[in-house]
Amino acid sequence: MTAPRDLDVFLQFRRRKAVDAGAGNNRGDYEDWFSCWGSYRDASARERDAYGVAEDIVAGVLTVRESSLIALVTNAARVVIGGADHGVTSVPLADRSGFRKLRVERKMG
Fold first, then answer.
1. What is the pTM of this model?
2. Which of 34, 106, 45 is nearest to 70 (CA)?
3. Which helix (H) or strand (E) element contains residue 16?
4. pLDDT in tens for each of the 109 residues of the chain?
5. What is the distance of C-alpha 66 from the center of its chain?
6. What's the pLDDT at 102?
7. CA separation for the pair 64, 40 (Å, rounded)
8. Domains in the chain with CATH codes
9. Which residues lie closer than 8 Å to 66 by C-beta, 6 or more apart?
10. Contact call for residues 79 and 22 (beta carbons, < 8 A)
11. Cβ neighbours around 52 below 10 Å, total
């Protein structure tokens, strides 16, 4: 169970700038969207196997408090954790806990 005191990592969520590239595609650069506090842990070996993560990928689980902005996060979003840019790979449905566990990944090197 996550407690508010466990949310000790500052997060900066980013999304693509809305630039019309035709056919409804947004192809702009990523820009800052919103920030919040959360907790991050590396994915376990079992989770890495279950997710099918490649060897050169750093995978983790990001826990954030449920909010109206978190509800808008999709797999197209990016999040900066400790200065490193991560891609959001999984956004689960909301539950009654008040928190969401997002799966994130970044390429090593």
1. 0.81
2. 34
3. strand 9-16
4. 666 678 899 999 999 887 766 666 666 789 999 999 999 998 777 776 676 666 777 888 999 999 999 999 999 999 999 999 999 999 998 888 889 999 999 887 6
5. 13
6. 94
7. 9
8. 4-107 (2.40.10.270)
9. 94, 97, 98, 99, 100
10. no
11. 8
